[in-house]
Amino acid sequence: MAKPVTPPQRQRRPRTVVRKTALGGDSDIRLISDRQDKSPDLYHRLFTISWPAFFGLFGSVYFFFNLLFSAIYLIDPGGIAHARPGSFGDAFFFSVQSMATVGFGNLYPDDLFTNLVVTVEVLLGIVTIAIATALIFSRFSRTTARVMFSEIAVIAPYDGVPTLMFRAANRRRNQILEAQVAVSLLRDEVTLEGKEMRRFHDLAVARARTPIFSLSWMVMHPIGSDSPLYGATPESLAAQDARIIVTMTGIDETFSAAIYARHIYTHVGIIWDHRFVDILGETVDGVRVLDYRRFNQVEPAQG
């Protein structure tokens, strides 16, 4: 008796996804998976795309459905009362009125087929408008931070110790309460076994918390003997593809909601032996001034 032949199992084709890096890389990250995920996170996409793209997408969907139902209405030439025979324009505007449930004027459904199509379109219009309204409300009600970070970071002596420094500022005219900042170093390293790895190192800052953050904040990390940056040079940071990752959290005073902000400095954005220009001054009548026009300006540390 011949042995049954087991058919070969169907092998899944690897799924390749290109994902934008969040670590300041020059290229995207290509992910390869054996899972055939055919259910993209549509809600997240609609929640995070830009406003022009959001309204453009919903406008396109709106016009597509109206064009589709206009073509369906034309199947029944006499289904829309007072409509010109074969007029696509009359069918289109009748569809717009039906989807928006604004009620009919001179045009109204005149037979069973058209009433059934109107029923389906009204139901679709209610669902679409409800989804759009919920998304728009969620996007408008989302609390976001308007924290500005300096475009570059500097390393210069401060109280005789080499110090990594960068600026942060609150661009809103309110206060961020209990603001906290965390700074990390990400770089390539080689283990004792010769394996290359990408590692994070926490960088202790001189002041990691401020009870009220309303104007400007100079964040400083002293590069002592216990610092992961101790002994680093511009060449070594470039060879390690180093990045300084900054995350800031706090409570928005106006909305009483938690806010988050982040920024990344690549090794190219770290200027050595320079310091930031002072942005705090005073007018002739004694009023203190904060000049944000000099926010990103630096000068030699020996100057």
Task: Kindly describe this structure.
- With 303 residues, this protein is of the alpha+beta class.
- The chain folds into 2 domains: 100 residues, Helix Hairpins (Orthogonal Bundle), CATH 1.10.287.70; 154 residues, G protein-activated inward rectifier potassium channel 1 (Immunoglobulin-like).
- Helices cover 26% and strands 34% of the residues.
- The protein contains 5 helices and 18 strands.
- Strands 5, 6, 7, 11 and 14 form a 5-stranded mixed β-sheet that branches. Strands 8, 9, 10, 12 and 13 form a 5-stranded antiparallel β-sheet that branches.
- A hairpin with a 5-residue loop joins strand 16 and strand 17.
- Helix 2 packs across helix 3 and helix 2 runs antiparallel to helix 4.
- The longest helix is centred in the middle third of the chain and has 30 residues.
- It is elongated.
- It starts with 14 loop residues before the first strand and ends with a strand.
Number of domains: 2
CATH architecture of the largest domain: Sandwich
CATH class wording of the largest domain? Mainly Beta
**Count the strands?**
18
Give the overall average pLDDT: 85
Could you estimate the helical fraction of the residues in percent?
25-40%
Task: List the main descriptive attributes of the protein structure presented here.
303 residues; alpha+beta; Helix Hairpins; Immunoglobulin-like; 2 domains; 5-stranded mixed β-sheet; 5-stranded antiparallel β-sheet; 5 helices; 26% helix; 34% strand; elongated
